[in-house]
């Protein structure tokens, strides 16, 4: 009986050992393979990094992709910060700044080739030269200079001719305007058709839109006109005749 009991204990021990061996065998290579397979799927935290296609079409949008979708990246992305060009940035399509008094140099007036019949000045062409890149727009204002006394300047009644358009200037480039006066008739001191007395100004004050007032003379002679009226064209990149 003791022998039989010993056999049963031995058999039980062998069965337990066999079961332990089988259990250890099941946790061997097959178990390692299963553990290696799980990381092949990216963890949730690395999900956004798996959307390079959307980031590629959006350029700088990739830097904002951590919290956004591929669709938002494709439209340029909002997470990149500063990725969108501003009007003043290169590529933004913005216009040059408006010309200021520091940007422009006004040349003396030159008698125009096309002017009203008479013996006075008739019409003159004036140019402005740019020192920097800027945009000029509008019509000049004109006054007869008060011989060094600005309070004695005589504004002329001005009529604008044509339509103003922006003139983009680079350093050294010029824009022109034409001033047409009521011309003096006759010889010597001449006369005005209206019956008024002709006026002669050694110089004029030209006010450039946004770019201050400039006193100029003529490159040949003085400004002789009637009725204190002038018709002006808008500044243009094309020199008037």
UniProtKB/TrEMBL annotation:
Compositional bias segments (type: Gly residues): 56-83
Taxonomic superkingdom: Bacteria
Domain named DUF4232: residues: 99-235
Organism: Streptomyces polychromogenes
InterPro entries on file: DUF4232
Keyword line: Signal
Keyword Signal found: yes
Region annotation (Disordered) ranges: 31-97
Signal peptide stretch: 1-30
UniProt-recorded name of the protein: DUF4232 domain-containing protein
